[in-house]
User: Fold this.
Amino acid sequence: MPPDSEAIAEQVFAALADPTRRAILAALASGGPATATDLAGRLPITRQAIAKHLALLAEAGLVTAEPGERRRVRYRLRSAPMQVAQQFLAALARDWDNPLDALKDHLGR
Amino acid sequence: MGFPDRIERVVELAHPPTTVWAALTTADGLASWFGHQVAIDLRPGGSAQMTWTGGHTASMRIERVEEPAVFGFTWPIYGLPGDDPRRTYVEFTLEPTGGGTRLTVTETGFAQLPDDAYRTAYDGNTRGWASELGELADYLGAA
Assistant:
């Protein structure tokens, strides 16, 4: 396992725990790459706050900055860290306890 | 280490390994406690298909068949998209205990990050939906 899997998952969960960052990530996921101005038009958050959160998200590697139109920075969601977090959740979501109880019941009959 | 890479459970069963083995490795056995519909080709390299009533299905590739002691297979990671190449390895080991069986199930590989997937994902902007949509546009443009 790469030494940074847990650190990557932690970045994702920390970002999702904040309602503003969660809203920004959700907007990028549903609508694709966007500038801070685009997002300010769609979310009840000021452009300045969005720009600040996008900078933090870019630093954490959850979004990447790229040149957009009219020399504005456009942000794009990175799927790789989300996939690492998904695997973390997959381990939590894997249910062996109920099937093994069912196996015991089956053999007990 | 906080990332849950490995799951392990141990259960003590009152039946001998041969009985437990049948429950783990036959279509009828598996259908009676695990899946709802099961097809299985029991040999290393063989495949098994399980379907649950909710419509969820899992395709397993059988890796180890050492009757009646070890049964291992890989399957997709639950919750990831169907085309995701990552799989976990599940291994059942059966140890006789008096008249019964100590059954251990381990599932490993949740923390894996295959090199190719890692590169593909982390090389970032050239991949993903944008590039696939670009390829679609190229394809339609060429048609």
User: Anything to note?
Assistant: DSSP finds six helices and three strands in chain A.
